[in-house]
Structure formats: C-alpha cells, structure tokens
Hints:
There is one protein chain. The chain is an alpha+beta fold. The chain has a single domain (about 1-80), classed as Alpha-Beta Plaits (2-Layer Sandwich). It has helices at about 15-25, 50-60; strands at about 1-10, 30-35, 40-50, 70-75, 85-90. A hairpin with a 5-residue loop joins strand 2 and strand 3 (about 40-50). The protein is globular, with a radius of gyration of 12 Å. The N and C termini lie far apart (about 25 Å).
Amino acid sequence: xxxxxxxxxxxxxxxxxxxxxxxxxxxxxxxxxxxxxxxxxxxxxxxxxxxxxxxxxxxxxxxxxxxxxxxxxxxxxxxxxxxxxxxxxx
Length: 90
C-alpha cells in the first residue's frame, strides 16, 4: 500500500476536473480525495497498490483533461490507515 500526493497545474478549475477524476477512479482500486486550491491548482491524494495508483494518475493525464494540464507534481506519501472511498473536497 502506498500513496501519492499530486498537484495539477494549468487550466484545471472550472472545466469539470474534479468530477472527471471522481468518475475515472471508479475503474481503479484507489482511495483518496481531490480538491480545488485558491491558487488555481487542483490537489489530489490517492492511496492503494503502487501500480494501481500510478495507473490512475496516468489515466487522468491521458483523459479528456489532458489539454488542461500544464504540469503535474507527484510525491510519495504514507497512506492513511483508515482511508476509504474517494471524495471531492471543498
């Protein structure tokens, strides 16, 4: 079990980014959350099997959101032991 803390930069707010991520996660065994930041970026935390989490992030980068993403920063984190589901945070 591993986790990734991700920041997406570009035109990632106001384009359905969080909703699309929430729909994409249904195809993966991943828990976590996604939220908009005041500086215009989108922040995400994803936890699960390393290959599954990495495939999920790649799916986001290759989705219809691709044209809106200018930069992706990913760091490895220790996942929360009680992480369940995937949510959009405010």
